[in-house]
Design brief:
The chain is α/β, with parallel strands linked by helices. The chain folds into 2 domains: about 230 residues, Alpha-Beta Complex (Spore Coat Polysaccharide Biosynthesis Protein SpsA, Chain A), CATH 3.90.550.10; about 70 residues, no CATH class. The chain has 10 helices and 12 strands. The strands form 2 sheets. Strands 1-4-3-2-5-10-7-11-9 form a 9-stranded mixed sheet, with helices on both faces. The chain has a 3-stranded mixed sheet with strand order 6-12-8. α1 runs parallel beside α2, α7 crosses α10 and α8 runs antiparallel to α10. The longest helix is centred in the last third of the chain and has 29 residues. The radius of gyration is 19 Å and the shape is globular. The protein starts with about 25 loop residues before the first strand and ends in a 16-residue tail after the last helix. Belongs to the glycosyltransferase 2 family. GO terms for molecular function: glycosyltransferase activity. InterPro entries: Nucleotide-diphossugar_trans (IPR029044). This is Glycosyl transferase family A.
Length: about 350
């Protein structure tokens, strides 16, 4: 799934603000035996999904990758720790090798920061750091293809598509919606990546950008990964998209509802606004943002009608208008917080 896609942002490089240094603490829950210097460490942030995490780890165990790699699970639920416990059990059984850590600070950005910090601390000589989400399954050739693409292209960051697998048998009408489709479709160099659910990078990207890697301001809204990729682009790092390095996301029934899809479109608009506002250093730049938001809102109906005419998909055609509306509501202070933990509910 495209997380934090900002489809209305300009593609040219823009200066980004540096973040105040804030190393993300983590606790090592389990450290198993691994190769001295694995070729890749695969990071898996997790939050109250131990059963699907087990499926994710088994999909990594089935990789046709010939070189040693380690799995690094980061549990963002310090009270429950179900993910860390499941990862430890599977590592002790020898299903996968690696380690499990606990990141106490809640939020998507903080979980990513903790797992990346752990990757550099526990595997300092590993040249590549990859990531996959705990609700995804890696295709058997995923790791081989994403590493091959990095070595072939020489890119600093390589991403692949996240394809939806809907739990609801009647959810096909959602398949063409932008929140469920990859931003890129063809392999090749790209300006930057969009989501952290399927990518790999040189470890030196983390070392150069420094902590916090992802901006904690996006902890609960999401989009910190997109902001991270933009800052990597602005720092001179290159990106590549490998269409054959596929991961499959399990989309639960609760995410194939009109309410959830509308909220997701609004959230994309909020993320766009937050990133632009963060990077607006001059007063004139800050004044341009509300003008752009109002312009996009005015064009929203036309963009939606154009998409409806070309695709015939009524649900997908609402995305441009809702995304524009999300920018305006975020400017007014309303920002949907998908990743804020709620008792008894997944973020």
């Amino acid at each position: 799934m495209n997380d934090g896609i900002a489809r209305d942002l300009p593609m040219q490089a823009q200066p980004t603000q540096s973040l105040p240094a804030r190393p993300e603490p983590f606790e090592v829950a389990y450290a198993g035996k691994t190769a001295a210097a694995p070729a890749v460490v695969v990071c898996i942030p997790t939050m109250r999904r131990p059963d699907h995490l087990a499926l994710t780890l088994r999909s990594l165990a089935a990789q046709d990758f010939a070189r040693p790699f380690a799995c690094l699970v980061a549990d963002n639920d310090p009270a429950g720790r179900a993910g860390a416990a499941r990862a430890e059990a599977m590592m002790r059984e020898g299903v996968v090798t690696g380690a499990a850590v606990v990141v106490a600070r809640p939020g998507h950005s903080s979980a990513c920061n903790g797992v990346f910090a752990a990757a550099r601390a526990l595997f300092p000589d590993t040249p590549l750091v990859a990531m996959i989400d705990d609700d995804e399954l890696a295709e058997p050739d995923w790791l081989r293809r994403i590493v091959d693409a990095q070595e072939r292209s020489g890119a600093d960051l390589v991403g692949g598509p996240v394809l939806p697998r809907f739990e609801r048998p009647d959810a096909g009408r959602f398949a063409g919606h932008p929140v469920f489709t990859p931003y890129y479709t063809a392999s090749g160099p790209v300006p930057f990546l969009y989501g952290s659910g399927n990518f790999a990078m040189r470890a030196q990207v983390l070392d150069r950008l420094g902590q916090p890697y992802l901006d904690p301001a996006f902890d609960f809204v999401g989009g910190g990964d997109f902001d991270f990729f933009k800052r990597a682009r602005d720092a001179g790092f290159t990106a590549y998209f490998e269409a054959e390095a596929r991961a499959v996301e399990t989309v639960p029934a609760g995410r194939t509802s009109l309410r959830w899809v509308v909220a997701r479109s609004l959230r994309y608009g909020a993320i766009n606004y937050m990133i632009e506002r963060k990077n607006a250093r001059r007063p004139l730049d800050r004044l341009r943002i509300p003008a752009k938001s109002l312009a996009l809102l005015g064009l929203g109906p036309l963009r939606s009608l154009s998409r409806l005419a070309s695709s015939g998909d009524l649900l997908a055609s609402t995305h441009p208008l809702l995304e524009a509306l999300g920018r305006v509501t975020a400017q007014a202070g309303f920002r949907p917080e998908q990743y804020r933990p709620r008792e008894g509910r997944l973020p």
